[in-house]
Amino acid sequence: MKGSIVLGTLALLGLMGALLFVTINEVDRMRTAEAAYAARAVETGALEFESRCRSCHGPQGKGTPLAPALNTAALFDGSRLAAAGYAGTVDDFVRGTISAGRPVPSAGTNYPQRMPTWGERFGGPLRDDQVDALVSFVMNWEDRATAEATAAPELPAGEAVGTDITQTLPEGDAGRGQTLAEGPLGCAACHTLSTVGPAWAGEGATPGIGARAAARLDEPGYGGAATTAEQYLLESVVETNTYLVAGFEANIMPGTFGARLTPQDAAHLIAYMLTFN
What we know:
Blueprint: H1 2-52, H2 54-57, H3 73-76, H4 79-83, H5 90-100, H6 128-139, H7 142-149, H8 174-182, H9 187-191, H10 209-216, H11 229-238, H12 257-260, H13 263-273
Helix pairs in contact: 1-6, 5-6, 8-13, 10-11
């Protein structure tokens, strides 16, 4: 009898130890599972962003002339929410904007595109889990955007290039020009990812902007002052209404690049544009 009690007690202690072991490991297992789920959600959201959001908000969510930046401290520090009069969390703000869209631009903005409705509940094409994945991807930028806000400005400081297209620019690097076009300048949104502006890439019998630039100087309708392809490209960036490509209206392209770009930035951008033959 006494031996049975001892064995029972030992068995109970063993069972309790096993349960404790399982419980401790279950916490770690759940944490690992949650981390893996979150990572998959960000990956899924990245794919959704690439196919649905990139053309307006830019390849890295840095914003374009079509839509505001998402990868920015202004979204995560509360300033954008305050400007919109929103009292909830950033997560809820992002989810609500994606789901229901934004038919009217925020106060103080004049983006030509309106945020469409994406959530199924509001008549859009995305299920709740797809919206959640997009939210996870956008929120994934918080640490990076906050860190960049205290780092160097997006565009290097220095003398602005201005509007003198006859000036001699430094040597440009096409790779750096691509980074500017797809990032802080937002050129890609209108010229390579959509047709808001004249396409830089060639198509069919139409050559790319690098080849068109030189030919443009001999066209009867050209009234600008450029005498070289490089000057024409600079003119098209800093004097946006000097020559309007057929089918496009004045003032679509922002007229502020002469003040935003340094001569070196302009040289990089032109070098990149010349690669589109």
